[in-house]
Amino acid sequence: MKLTFICLLVAVAIASVCAQTCPPNEYYTECYHTDAECIPTCTNPDPQCQPTCSEDGPGQCVCVYGYVRHHSGACVQVAHC
């Protein structure tokens, strides 16, 4: 009984780590901009930087194409900045 419970806890922990959920208008990727000035924002919607891809590090949520990071932290269309 205890072994079953431990296995269930481990399975839930693994599933929560593997299933990355992101806020609206964002997606999870392991290729992202590591420098803050390279993240598309309302004040700089088209920065000229190359994303960095990491195979062994954690990924992050980024704005979907056509959206930028608002000062509130949400991803919005440029027209809504």
UniProtKB/TrEMBL annotation:
SUPFAM superfamilies: Serine protease inhibitors (SSF57567)
Domain TIL: 22-81
CDD domains hit by this protein: TIL (cd19941)
UniProt keyword annotations, A-Z: Disulfide bond, Protease inhibitor, Signal
Signal peptide positions (record): 1-19
MF terms (GO), sorted A to Z: peptidase inhibitor activity
UniProt keyword annotation of Disulfide bond present: yes
Signal as UniProt keyword: yes
Family annotation (PANTHER family): ACCESSORY GLAND PROTEIN ACP62F-RELATED, RIDDLE
Name listed for the protein in its UniProt record: TIL domain-containing protein
Source species of the chain: Pseudolycoriella hygida
